[in-house]
Amino acid sequence: MIGEKQCIRGRRDLPTRGAGSSSGSDDGSLPSMTPEDRECLHAKMFLMKQRQHDMPSLYDHLSSLIATLLDGETNLGLSQLEEISETIKRERIEVPSAPLRDDPGKSHTENLAKAQWNLFKKMPQVGQNDIDNHFEESDGFIGVPDIVRHAAFFEMAGIGLPREEIIRMSLALTELMMDYPFIKSIRFWGKILGISRNYYIAETEFGEEEYEDDTSVTKEAEHDNDELPSELREEESSLFDDMMLPDDLKPMYKPPPKIPCEPAGSGLNKKVYFVTSEPGLPWVRLPHVTPAQIQVARKIRKFFTGNLDAQVVSYPPFPGIERNYLRAQIARISASTQISPLGYFRFDDETEEEEAAEETGEARGDIIIDTEFEGMSIKDLADGSLQAWVHHSPAILPQGRAMWWNPVQPKEEFNEDEEDQEDEDEERNEPDEPEPEVGPPLLTPLAEDDSVGNSPAWIACTSSKFIPEYAIALLQSNVWVGAMAFAADKGKFFENLYIGWGQKNLEDVFEPALPEIPLVEFPSGPEITEADDPTPEEEAAVRAALQEKELEAEFEQNMDDEDDDDIVDDDGEGGEQFD
User: Fold this and answer.
1) Is the peptide bond between 316 and the residue preceding it cis, with omega within 30 degrees of 0?
2) Residue range 125-146, pLDDT digits in tens
3) b or e along 100-133 (b: 16 or more beta carbons within 10 Å of the residue's beta carbon)?
4) CA dist., res. 245 & res. 243, Å (int)
């Protein structure tokens, strides 16, 4: 529009030869002009030529550029001329809709930025009074810990995460605490690296009444049993018992009983873990761990992909997907690397604990914080003897549980009609009483840990040798590389953290388990070789042949009977030849 107006204005302002001259002649020819006016008109017409059908002419562009410069509110210099010209050309471009591609959607970075921005905006909306009241009612570890302070101490030792990442994780933990108000305690467990994405892990603990409605343990325990055929499930009768076989032909072998999962709130399932790939994204709760998953996780080595629903391809086959494998590795790492200064924790009831230890040979029980703990010097905590640090998490037995379960359980209910039969079966198939598995008790010093080859299980040091009065004690694990712990304020303030790939450090090179030896095939023969079914004509011919054989056999039998009768008559007449 501006170009057209300027063009019209230029045509009207064409100079004429005289003031009184007319705008045109009667014959329709151009008005008489001077040579200068004619050259100016020719130049204008030259500029108004359109070189491309989809682009404006040079005259229109210059007209728009001059109009923009004249209409500007500020004084524009020569340096802005090219920028304004480029802006005008960009506004005139009309891109057809056909070449436009489909909207690819928001990228992962954009979604993450939006989620983290919502995380920052959400915090003030919670209400400061609710947060203050929540923390005032908390004792000990209850509440969101100050992981920023923890990160500062780890940073003194040269390890940890960036401060920006720690701030976002602190906000994410607060959001998790607000989403699950029944959480009793929460802390940042660590970070497990993955091939495509990483896992940020939060360790929580529920109240005792909240575990009653937790059905994840039952679902996890019944997962393997649901995949079996109905005749081979544990709760139903055995396939061989239903078959009409004599007792002496029934197989005496019975598969070992399935080790049950520990109930929620006890053992390895005392803690509940949540994971997220980035702070600000939704938290995902991990299922409880089963003994079978622990046993298989000890035999395989797999890197995490970052996808909780990914399949774990390994031998032996892992009973679950990556979220189950992640939970099993977390349980193994926690059992080996959760440590605390000696004396910080104590058993809840030492008398009952000693009695239980004498009866069962174990020394496991609940531990609480010792309020009378006076602490110890940083020099003792950083001593290489490792006598000042203990494990405060239960060890995992070879069975895959923290508390041993007896596979030979006595039967409580008996049927009077089947009692005698069961007694006979027990005498024949009664297994030997297994020996209980016993692991290291709670609060065992780190000095008793097995070394990794020529390296000790733990390395103890201080954060600084130049300023020892402000240094902290630091411990690093050689068994699970990436597990760390620090202690400050005479051991009264400490924390554990894991940042690694979730793989155990082995003394030798890992060797996968060999497949089992294949069973010997049953020898082939005519007795078990499949054959085609006979036709009705063949069956009729076989039946006729069988009937003919039966008639012949019957005829021969009758003839033999007649011969026997004749022999008996002869014997009766002679009478004395057998004497």
Assistant:
1) yes
2) 444 455 555 444 444 334 678 8
3) eeeeeeeeeeeebeebbeebeeeeeeeeeeebee
4) 6
DSSP string, 61-76: HHHHHHHHHHH-SS--
The pair of structure tokens assigned to 190 is: 């660590």
Q: Tokens 């089963």 identify what position?
A: 290
> Does residue 335 have a pLDDT over 90?
yes
Q: Angle 163-179/108-126 helices, nearest 10 degrees?
A: 60
> How does residue 473 score in pLDDT terms, banded at 50, 70 and 90?
very high
**Could you tell me which residues come within 8 angstroms of residue 564 by beta carbon, excluding any fewer than 6 positions away?**
none
Distance, CA of 468 to CA of 61 (rounded, Å): 75
Give the mean pLDDT of the chain.
77
What is the structure's pLDDT at 122?
A: 66
At residue 6, the pLDDT reads 44
Beta-strand relationship, 183-192 and 493-500: parallel
- The pLDDT value recorded for residue 73 is 61
Nearest to 319 by CA among 402, 222, 435, 388: 222
| Closest-CA residue to 477 (of 372, 338, 367, 572) | 338
- Distance, in Å, from the CA atom of 60 to the CA atom of 39, rounded to the nearest integer, reads 19
Distance of alpha carbon 165 from alpha carbon 516, whole angstroms: 47
Tokens (6 digits) for 364 = 């496991």
CA dihedral 73, 75, 76, 78 (to 10 degrees): 160
Query: What's the pLDDT score for residue 459?
Result: 94
Instruction: Give CA–CA dist 270/402, Å, rounded.
Output: 10
pLDDT over 70, % of the chain: 70
Q: Which of 47-56, 165-174, 393-402 has the lowest mean pLDDT?
A: 47-56
β-pair partners for 498: 190, 483
Sequence-distant (6+) residues with CB within 8 A of 201 are: 188, 189, 190, 191, 192, 273, 274, 275, 330
Provide the β-strand partners of residue 445. Answer: 390
**With bands split at pLDDT 50, 70 and 90, how would you rate the model's confidence at 410?**
low
Give the 3-state secondary structure of residue 187. Answer: strand
Give CA separation, 54 vs 94, 96, 97, 278, in Å: 8, 11, 15, 48
DSSP string, 288-320: PP-HHHHHHHTT------S-TT-B---SSPPSS
- 8 A C-beta contact, residue 502 and residue 297: no
| Predicted TM-score of the model (pTM) | 0.66
Q: Is the pLDDT of residue 18 over 90?
A: no
Residue owning tokens 């059905």: 215
Residue 495's nearest CA partner among 208, 258, 151 is: 151
292 pLDDT above the threshold of 70 = yes
Cβ–Cβ < 8 Å for 204, 183: yes
- In this model, does residue 245 exceed pLDDT 70? no
